[in-house]
Amino acid sequence: MNKLESMAGAPDAGQIDLPPEPYLPRRIAHLENWRGAGHEIKIYGIHRDVTSTGPMLSDDTLAAVRAATRDVLEACARDARSHGLGFCIVHVGEEAVWLLVDWWISGGILCQRMLSAPLAQPDVFKPVSTPALACVWELVVTAHERNAWVRHMLTATPNPKAYGDDALPAGSY
């Protein structure tokens, strides 16, 4: 059980004595654009080790990300309101590998499903049932994607290609 799951039945926040959590940047990069389940999805990676210069994800983990993303989109994003565009975030964190699958529907609405995999099995994703949205590092990507959506899609002449090409620059955030 990770911290997120263990907090589900926790007492009032005022009764919990939590240690300080000073912010440390993490490595974030756009990994690829992937097509599947009728969608074009920008895949981003986040890694807790900002000094690492190796690949963000193994080939097996990236394949599992694509498969899990496809499964989520096939189960949840097959309605007439979907634009067929979105992004996903794969975050190799301190306690788990988190996968946030996000897709846009009409009305400027972003939909999401969250999954996680154990660090020791980073290619075994299961749905997260705890009511969570994202961590501070994942919100960097989400903020960029929101702004890209406004720039390229919430206009008089929506441009899906420009949206797909507009990725957050790699760096430490």
Summarize the topology.
Layout: H1 3-6, E1 27-36, E2 39-47, H2 59-76, E3 82-92, E4 96-105, E5 109-118, E6 126-127, H3 136-152, H4 160-165, E7 171-172
Parallel strand pairs: 2-3
Antiparallel strand pairs: 1-2, 1-7, 3-4, 4-5, 5-6
Order of helices and strands: HEEHEEEEHHE
For the biggest β-sheet, the strand order reads 6-5-4-3-2-1-7
Distance between the termini: 27 Å
Which word captures the global form? globular
- What class do helices, strands and sheet pairing give? alpha+beta
Major sheet characteristics: 7 strands, mixed
- Oligomeric state, counting identical vs distinct chains: single chain
Number of strands: 7
Helix content: 25-40%
| Number of self-contained structural domains | 1
> Approximately how much beta-strand content do the residues carry?
25-35%
**Radius of gyration from the CA trace?**
16 Å
Total count of helical runs of at least 4 residues: 4
Task: List unreliable stretches of 5+ residues.
Answer: none
Mean pLDDT: 93
Structure, explained:
By secondary structure, the protein is of the alpha+beta class. The protein has one domain (23-172). The chain contains four helices and seven strands. It has a seven-stranded mixed sheet with strand order 6-5-4-3-2-1-7, sandwiched between helices. It is globular, with a radius of gyration of 16 Å. The relative contact order is 0.18. The model has no long low-confidence stretch (mean pLDDT 93).
